[in-house]
């Protein structure tokens, strides 16, 4: 008796391994999977500008990085005793104008360098609903609690999203012709937009994504949204807000992602790193005991053995 349907997934030919570099941009899904890759000590950069929900916000960031247009005072604004940028998440907001500009420009340099040397780029879109500043008609990455009457909320049609995705692909390939690009749609439900409106949005994103990758080389789709909706179709897989996948769901989707995109030759090292991570997180009853000191020495020896082969890893 089958009590669950499974989306057919097959390993890709060229997969992620420890000698590959990864850049992840977009919505909460890349944060979740990025944390898993970081845990296992892969070389990964995740959202230098924080979470970006709309494809146009990702394109805006990439265009600025390619053009090396530094942020200036004209690109930030002051609200609620903090400085913000409409192109970045509130993680990059701050009390000092200088501090915010330094953070934005540092993130810009990191984005360009990661873009240039990445072997894989993962791009996740969260919504097709765009918030456009009325006085500038530009899509913002984050509203930063600016009053809603300052924006027009617009559902981007498939054609406009497809054009945006194609521009993203073209830009990336100009900088890094050999990179492999994995597109996903975030499984996070944007219910504040409305139940029907959220489904509309996800459908637009998926249609535009498939139209884009069907005509492109080295571009792929990973069905994160579909796994959440079809394989994990139960509210016990959500956090208390009934919007975000919980830890169990993230781990389940990670295992599916690993099957498709992580080289099995890396599994043995991943298992060893997992044991080290659990050892480092272990809280002893008596940190000064001889038993614990011996445990720490053995743990350090295991770390040193890995660092002989991968000196860039930091534990």
UniProtKB/TrEMBL annotation:
Gene3D superfamilies membership: SGNH hydrolase
TM stretches of this protein: none
SUPFAM superfamilies attached to this UniProt entry: SGNH hydrolase (SSF52266)
InterPro entries in the record: GSCFA (IPR014982), SGNH_hydro_sf (IPR036514)
GSCFA domain mapped to chain residues: 21-257
Name by which UniProt lists this protein: GSCFA domain-containing protein
């Amino acid at each position: 008796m089958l009590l669950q349907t499974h989306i057919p997934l097959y390993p890709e030919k060229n997969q992620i391994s420890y000698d590959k570099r990864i850049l992840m941009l977009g919505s909460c899904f890349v944060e979740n999977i990025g944390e898993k890759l970081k845990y296992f000590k892969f070389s990964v950069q995740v959202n230098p500008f924080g979470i970006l929900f709309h494809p146009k916000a990702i394109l805006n960031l990439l265009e600025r990085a390619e053009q090396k247009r530094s942020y200036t005072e004209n690109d930030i604004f002051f609200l609620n005793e903090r400085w913000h940028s409409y192109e970045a998440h509130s993680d990059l907001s701050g009390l000092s104008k200088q501090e915010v500009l330094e953070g934005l420009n540092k993130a810009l340099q990191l984005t360009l360098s990661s873009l240039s040397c990445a072997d894989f780029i993962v791009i996740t879109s969260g919504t097709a609903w765009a918030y456009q500043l009325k006085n500038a008609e530009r899509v913002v990455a984050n509203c930063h609690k600016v009053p809603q009457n300052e924006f027009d909320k617009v559902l981007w049609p498939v054609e406009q999203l497809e054009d945006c995705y194609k521009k993203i692909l073209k830009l990336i390939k100009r900088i890094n012709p050999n990179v492999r690009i994995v597109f996903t749609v975030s499984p996070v439900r944007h219910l504040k937009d409305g139940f029907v409106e959220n489904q509309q949005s996800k459908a637009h994103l998926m249609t535009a994504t498939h139209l884009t990758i069907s005509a492109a080389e080295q571009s792929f789709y990973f069905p994160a949204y579909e796994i959440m909706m079809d394989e994990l179709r139960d509210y016990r897989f959500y956090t208390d807000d009934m919007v975000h996948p919980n830890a169990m769901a993230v781990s389940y989707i990670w295992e599916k992602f690993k099957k498709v995109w992580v080289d099995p030759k890396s599994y043995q090292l991943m298992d060893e790193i997992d044991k080290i991570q659990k050892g480092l997180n272990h809280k002893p009853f008596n940190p000064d005991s001889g038993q614990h000191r011996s445990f720490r020495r053995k743990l350090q020896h295991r770390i040193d053995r890995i660092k002989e082969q991968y000196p860039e890893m930091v534990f």
